[in-house]
Amino acid sequence: MKVSPLDKRVLNKFYAFLGAISVITSIVFLFADIEDKDKPIAGIVALGAIILVYIGIWIHANVRRSIRLKINNSEIEVYFGDIFEDSAELKAISFNEYFDTQVDDKIISKRSLHGQFIEKLYAGRVDALDDIIAADEHLPEMIAGENPTRPAGKKTKYKLGTVCMAEECLLIALSRFDANNKAFLEISDYISCLLAFWNEVDSVYNERTLALPVLGSGITRFRDYESISDQELLELIIWTFKLSRIKFTYPSKVKIVVWEKKSEKINLQKLKDLET
How far lies 85's CA from each of 165, 167, 211, 254, 257, in Å? Predict the structure, then answer.
């Protein structure tokens, strides 16, 4: 089980339950008269019920599928699912620093979210996506350099955190590429990238709900932090949102969609510690 039975959040819920029950039982016993011979049985039944409630709270903490957080007076919902099936008006998809669109398992892996996005939404019309990226008036000022000797893929690099609007999707330059087209990132770059991303989102979200995955999960390699977990990445995303002071006004909100197969590695209950 990913949540310990002695987890403080489980205990706090249980204590709140005990407080409510103690008040109710006190009122009941004012009016109910239990015979002495029945008191041991009543005590055993009550103790058994309390133990079952505690176990129920603990199991729920381990099997829950979603959680809602209040950060900077904004609502963040974290749940397990498929971002492509989410109904949010805006979706964030991580790209590399070149905004490459060549899905061939050499430049872009078909298994990556980057590759799946292109194959699901731009299958047979990748040129249309290239045109959108090329026409983005914001991108020229975000150019980080040129790589004319790159053998395949695009040659222009953009600053990490740069966002390109492709229809209702926010394409974010999240990872660097080495000479072998392997994505990598340093943790300091990752944090700076997220802060830049939230700043960009603040100017374009226009009171719409935004859905994003656990950015950096899977393909990206962190050079100075090899063992970073999806839980830590998720917490960093929420922490940088909190640090950015961006506010999503009701009914809009942020939805972080965790890939279904990662559910055993994510402790949703622990995220409550990040609330304002």
Answer: 19, 16, 10, 15, 10
Pair 197, 134 in one domain: yes
The whole-model pTM stands at 0.84
Nearest partner of 259 among 131, 112, 138, 152, judged by Cα = 112
Phi, psi of 223 (to 5 degrees): -65, -35
Q: What is the pLDDT of residues 212-245, one digit of tens each?
A: 999 988 766 777 676 788 999 999 999 999 999 8
Which tens digit of pLDDT belongs to each residue from 150-207? 988 999 999 999 999 998 999 999 998 888 888 888 888 999 999 999 998 988 888 8
CB 91 within 8 A of CB 120: no
Pair (210, 80) in one structural domain: yes
* Number of Cβ within a 10 Å radius of residue 101: 23
DSSP letters, 153-173, are S--EEE-TT-EEEETTEEEEE
Q: Look at residues 80, 78, 54, 82 and name the one whose alpha carbon lies nearest to residue 68.
A: 78
Instruction: Report the percentage of the chain scoring pLDDT > 90.
Output: 48
Helices (H), ranges, 85-229: 113-121, 126-135, 187-204
**What is the Cα–Cα distance from 90 to 86, expressed in whole angstroms?**
10
Of 2, 13, 82, the closest CA to residue 268 belongs to 2
Cα gap 241→235, rounded to integer Å:
10
Q: What pLDDT sits at residue 117?
A: 95
Domain range for 26 is 8-63
Question: What is the Cα–Cα distance from 267 to 93, expressed in whole angstroms?
Answer: 23
Burial label for 81, CB within 10 Å (0-12, 13-18, 19+), is: middle
Residues 202, 153, single domain; the answer is: yes
